[in-house]
Structure formats: structure tokens, C-alpha cells
Design a protein that fits this description.
CATH superfamily of one domain: Transferase(Phosphotransferase) domain 1
CATH class of one domain: Mainly Alpha
Helix content: 25-40%
CATH architecture of one domain: Orthogonal Bundle
Structural class: mainly alpha
Strand content: 5-15%
Number of helices: 6
Largest sheet: 2 strands, antiparallel
Length: 165
């Protein structure tokens, strides 16, 4: 829709009782092609979720939000963000210089296709990342269909059990 959010993170993702997902908090958002609201070289966003280009204070586009969404997906699957450190500068260093651990290290039951989608969203070079969110969504839907069709429990991702009351 021509808006770059620049702060996609779990706290800004809400899910309604009907399962509809909403992105909130557009305080750092900007319209594509508009004059900068922030000064050149300023780092905007929550450190663990910023893209490499954000970390460098470069101009960002929609692919930066795809990166941040990839971090959210990784965290949903692995239970941790892909890049961490004791200090903000250590996290930024990791984002810029380190390759994330394969998500399968933390969740061996994740399908190869789902893992590939997460890692493609986390490509450091925006040109190698998904170019459009619709392509990432298509890959996720394809994985969902494969997951639903399989009747071999060993190939299904285990669903967390609901707490008993």
C-alpha cells in the first residue's frame, strides 16, 4: 500500500479472536517515495528486528519490512530472535556480519520449505531477499497446504498442547 512500517515486531502484531492479523503502531512509518521524515543516517526501529540497511542508517524500502517479518517468523519458530547480544551494538554487529543459525537447529520438525522461506526473508542483501511480500505469503501458503495434506505425524510440526484447566 506504499507504506514502509520500519518497526515490524511481535509487539506491533495483533491477532483478533477471529484470527485476523493487524499490524499496529505506525509511528515510524513513511510513505514510499516521500521526503524523509527522519534525518539521513538515523537508525529507526527496534534493534533486534531492524534490517541490515536500517542498521547502517541507509534509505529503506518495503524489503526492510520483509526482513523484520522474517525475524518475527524465526522467533515464532525458534523461540528466540536470530541475532542477539548483550548490548545493542553487539546485536547490530550480528545483524550486519553473522549468518543466523538454521531455524531447524531450534525446531528440527520445521519443514525444509518453511525454513527456506524464513531464511530467504533474512537475506542480508535486499536484492537476494523476497522482493515482494506476496511472494513470501505464497510460499507460506504452499507450506501450509503441504502441512495440512500430510498424514504422517513425523512430518508434521508438533502443535503446542493447550493447558488444561
Amino acid at each position: 500500500m506504499g507504506v514502509i512500517h520500519r518497526d515490524v515486531k511481535p509487539a506491533n502484531v495483533l491477532i483478533s479472536k477471529k484470527g485476523r492479523v493487524r499490524i499496529t503502531d505506525f509511528g515510524l512509518a513513511k510513505r514510499t517515495g516521500r521526503t524523509r521524515v527522519t534525518r539521513n543516517g538515523a537508525v529507526m526501529g527496534t534493534i533486534a528486528y531492524i534490517s541490515p540497511e536500517q542498521a547502517l542508517g541507509k534509505e529503506v524500502d518495503h524489503r526492510s519490512d520483509i526482513w523484520s517479518f522474517g525475524v518475527v517468523l524465526y522467533e515464532m519458530l525458534a523461540g528466540k530472535t536470530p541475532f542477539d547480544g548483550d548490548y545493542d551494538s553487539a546485536v547490530v554487529y550480528a545483524i550486519l556480519n553473522e549468518k543466523e543459525e538454521p531455524v531447524s537447529r531450534w525446531r528440527p520438525d520445521v519443514s525444509p520449505g518453511l525454513a527456506a522461506a524464513v531464511h530467504k526473508a533474512l537475506e542480508k542483501d535486499p536484492e537476494m531477499r523476497y522482493q515482494h511480500m506476496v511472494d513470501l505469503v505464497a510460499d507460506l501458503k504452499r507450506e501450509q497446504l503441504l502441512f495440512q495434506k500430510t498424514d504422517r505425524p513425523a512430518q508434521r510440526m508438533r502443535q503446542p498442547s493447550k493447558p488444561s484447566r
